[in-house]
Amino acid sequence: MTQDELKALVGQAAIAYVQPGSVVGVGTGSTVNHFIDALAKMPVRVAGAVSSSVQSTERLRKHGIAVLEAGDVTGLGVYVDGADEIDGQGCMIKGGGAALTREKIVADLADRFVCIADESKKVDVLGRFPLPVEVIQMAVPQVMRRFAAMGAQPAVRPGVLTDNGHPIVDVRGLSIADPVALEREINQWPGVVCVGIFARHRADVCLLGTATGVQTLAYDRT
Ligand code: 5RP
């Protein structure tokens, strides 16, 4: 199976976690695009979606699925999103599609985070994928110096501004042994809007697309 076929498989499998008639949290990316297409085919559709990006909003609306603002809901049953990496505890690196800040906001509303990913995303230790960090422009040199002082190699993602109008710094050379601590630390640096470590908002379940089918990995969040 191709990587895209594996993404389609898990995008469709995630429908089992969606309550018909509910409002669902929707992430961003090529795997989520398959999930959105599957949402549109549900026999009893969702009442609407809270979206994490302009890209997902446009796709949802094209399928006639109502898009609500995050502020219109007080909670969501489930949030479905992809990942760039996921470790054995359900901690993730996200933000390859530059939607990390809104993804974290919508994930925070949900009782359950269902990660959908092809098997290439599963890692023992986070950090092979360059860590995306959304940063206010003024603070970019300062934040990059902090990463360099840690021995990492930060670089501004060329030609990219997020839906919030900020640049992304991608950081190579980090081996993230303690994702909770590093997420907390980077979040405190002035000018950082959001770091793409999802440890506090880690997955409850990962539907992993493999050559032999969908593998369901459940994580203990306590
Ligand atoms: C976007 C993300 C995506 O979930 C992540 O980049 C995975 O994308 P894809 O499903 O295209 O592989 O975090 O900001």
Characterise this structure.
- With 222 residues, the chain is an alpha/beta fold.
- It folds into 2 domains: 139 residues, Rossmann fold; 63 residues, Alpha-Beta Plaits (2-Layer Sandwich), CATH 3.30.70.
- The chain is built from 6 helices and 14 strands.
- The strands form 3 sheets. The protein has a 7-stranded mixed sheet.
- Strand 5 and strand 6 form a beta hairpin.
- Helix 1 packs across helix 2.
- It is globular and about 55 Å long.
- The mean pLDDT is 97.
- Ribulose-5-phosphate binds next to helix 2 and helix 4.
In short:
This protein is an alpha/beta fold and 222 residues long. It has helices spanning 3-13, 30-39, 54-62, 100-109, 140-149, 179-187, and strands spanning 23-26, 48-51, 67-68, 76-81, 85-86, 92-93, 110-118, 131-135, 153-156, 168-172, 192-195, 197-198, 205-210, 213-218.
Radius of gyration in whole Å, from Cα? 17 Å
Would you identify the CATH architecture of the largest domain? 3-Layer(aba) Sandwich
Shape: globular
Order of helices and strands: HEHEHEEEEHEEHEEHEEEE
Number of helices: 6
Count all strands and give the number: 14
Write the layout of secondary structure elements.
Elements: H1 3-13, E1 23-26, H2 30-39, E2 48-51, H3 54-62, E3 67-68, E4 76-81, E5 85-86, E6 92-93, H4 100-109, E7 110-118, E8 131-135, H5 140-149, E9 153-156, E10 168-172, H6 179-187, E11 192-195, E12 197-198, E13 205-210, E14 213-218
Parallel strand pairs: 1-2, 1-4, 2-3, 4-7, 7-13
Antiparallel strand pairs: 5-6, 6-12, 8-10, 8-11, 9-10, 13-14
Helix pairs in contact: 1-2
